[in-house]
Amino acid sequence: MDWKIGGLAGIALLILGGFLYQIFGTEFILYLEPSSRIVNLETEFRVWDEVAEINFDENILPGHILTREQSATQTFMVSGEKTEEQKATGVIRVYNAENPPREIRLRATTRFLASNGVYFRTPEAISLPPAKIESGRLVPSKIDVSVEAMDPGESSNIGPTKFSVPGLLGTDLYDKIYGESFESMTGGEIVSYSEVTLSDLRQAEESLRFDLTSDLISSLETEEEDLIVLPEAIETQDLVTEASVEVGDLENNFEYRLDIEGQALVFSEDTLHQLLDRVVIDKIGQEYRIVPDSLYFDYRVLSFDSEDHLLRVNLKFSAEVYRDLTLNQWPEKLSGLTKTEMKNILLADDRLNAFQFRLTPFWLRKLPNSEKMVIEIKFK
After folding, report:
1. Which residues of the chain have pLDDT under 50?
2. Which is it for the CA torsion 344, 345, 348, 351, positive or negative?
3. What pLDDT, on the 0 to 100 scale, is given for residue 14?
């Protein structure tokens, strides 16, 4: 008899537990995936530090000025080149073997041609004494003269050799006036040096200014994640410009230092999103909303007035949009329905692409009241 009483008590407890679980443990979660599409839109807006809140009628966003200093020193390579040309020089012994003997004068810059084809010139006029007759034999006169190669470079650094005077070719003197050297010609070379140009200094400054402006944007965006900083809305003032060289210096590289103060007109990404929400409503319909994190921007700054702190921007943007699902209406609409009735309502709503739900305990045939419902939008 006792075991029967114990069994009935156990069954009663199970029924009571199930009843209490159904009341207090019921859970209904519904995920709605809206139908969406991509739209491409264009608008123009202004950013002004004289307004404190969004002006939706005139598309004006509040902005504010941030001032920061940036400094950088960098090493740059020199692009200019300076060439120094040196001509080989030396001494030629010039002979006069004219017979009958007479003085021969050669004008300044007379050319002498070495046996290997290299030309030299005499910088000054030459007076060759007449040859002598000794013991019935002609003894040519001779004189040492300085010469310089006609062309610069090492190719004129030649060893001892014979020389002719090409200007006398075709005359009786061609084989009577000649020369020879006993030592090498030296000093011919072409040397190139790196030379600092004005363009080098200007490019260094421009490069540093670009980097410092980029660093300024990064630092501002790091300070506040919500900030939008456009390069065109930054005005910079040079505080220090300093180069380790001057134009014309012969150096391979140089250091350039630039310190700037930058003023940026910045605005909030959240306010921009609010404005674009309104643009979407105005252009495609009151019921449309933008899918979070689906915006893609293409900014084009039309103008920036640094004195009035006023920025005009043309913005092309694409966004994934969906029709508002009015989440607060669904609990009351679905409360107390069977799962089949709920499915039919959701399938008939053309705003929806898909849905998922979870109802516990699983044996419940009807949905709980609205207080026990959780309804969320789930995007792809």
Report:
1. 9, 12-24
2. negative
3. 44
What span, in angstroms and rounded, lies between the C-alpha atoms of 117 and 164? 10
Which pLDDT does position 77 carry in this prediction? 97
Q: How high is the pLDDT of residue 11?
A: 53
For 83, 156, 162, 188, 195, the CA distances from 153, given in Å and listed in that order, are 11, 6, 20, 5, 20
155: buried, middle or exposed (CB in 10 Å: 19+, 13-18, 0-12)?
middle
Distance (Å, rounded) from C-alpha 284 to C-alpha 2?
75
- Distance between CA 64 and CA 124 in Å, rounded? 78
Q: Can you spell out the DSSP letters for 25-81?
A: S-EEEEEEEE-EEEEEEEEEEEEETT-SS-BTTTTEEEEEEEEEEEEEEEEEE--EE
pTM value > 0.85: no
pLDDT of the residue at 223 = 83
In residues, how long is the chain? Answer: 380
